[in-house]
Design a protein that fits this description.
Immunoglobulin-like; 4 helices; 10-stranded mixed beta sheet; alpha+beta; globular; 274 residues
Length: 274
């Protein structure tokens, strides 16, 4: 029989004259053998259980650490469409970030990508676009479909069927100055806007967790008449990536540590067993 772990102390008077292999409380006065219902635990069983717990505890810890460290780098932009009310087959993705020169300031770069390749309807053009970032105090259009010269300067307010309307707290709007291929929908090219936005009420932590915003858009015919029910939807401004990111050493270290943790999980077969 396999050796057993000593779970008790020396037996009391009248028990076996050698160390008990069972809990002291189970030793009975005058008995010369183990209690009838005593459970003997082989040393090998306990050692195997301890090794199993230790191995999987370490693996679980590394898996959790790896996924936690990778989470920020795997963050995805908030997207609405193509089937929301007013989307009409169009997909909108809104992100924000701070460039190196914007760090430690209340300035942010906000990017809107409009995938209008799935547009449902007759030929139309994006007539005006208006994000709502409640605490903004200033906004400048720094890139746009065609060029910034093809769009009006930023105006406070949202949109109506005619374009920017100057109404709506927290909105800022840019209207197309003409109708041509640069703002035509149902094309293979995305409509890409970028603004430099000042918002003293927005913190990097709020942006990282998703900041509640809204978006309006109006589509028009080539003569400027209303082409479709305008978009008016709430969404989240979520972290994006600068066009030419240069990760800091600490960021590389976190991602490398996270990848090591996930790699360890895959090697141990932990993820597959889960």
């Amino acid at each position: 029989m396999a050796a057993a772990v000593r779970l008790g102390v020396e037996c009391a008077s009248g028990c076996m004259p050698r160390p008990c292999r069972y809990p002291a409380l189970l030793c009975k006065q005058g008995s010369y053998g183990p209690p009838a219902m005593a459970l003997e635990l082989p040393t090998e069983a306990l050692e195997t259980s301890a090794m199993f717990f230790h191995r999987h505890a370490v693996t679980t810890l590394l898996c959790g650490l790896g996924l936690a460290l990778l989470a920020p780098s795997l963050a995805r932009a908030n997207t609405i469409g193509p089937n929301c009310t007013g989307c009409n087959g169009v997909i909108y993705t809104l992100t924000g970030y701070q460039t190196a020169s914007q760090l430690s300031t209340d300035q942010y770069t906000v990017n809107l990508v409009i995938n209008a390749s799935g547009w449902k309807g007759s030929s139309a053009y994006l007539g005006a676009i208006a994000p709502k970032i409640q605490g903004f105090t200033a906004a400048t259009l720094i890139s746009a479909p065609g060029s910034t010269w093809d769009w009006s300067a930023v105006q406070a307010g949202g949109t109506n069927s005619g374009g920017c309307d100057g109404n709506g707290n927290g909105f800022f709007c840019n209207a197309a100055l003409s109708y041509a291929s640069f703002n035509q929908v149902a094309s293979a090219s995305d409509l890409d806007f970028t603004w430099d936005v000042t918002d003293p009420s927005l913190s990097p932590a709020e942006l990282a967790s998703g900041y509640g915003v809204s978006l309006k858009a109006v589509y028009q015919n080539s003569n400027g008449s209303f082409a479709h029910t305008q978009l008016s939807q709430d969404m989240l401004l979520t972290p994006g990536t600068p066009a030419t990111p240069v990760p800091e050493p600490a960021t590389w270290a976190l991602m490398f540590t996270g990848l090591l943790g996930v790699g360890w999980c895959a090697r141990r077969g932990f993820l597959g067993q889960s």
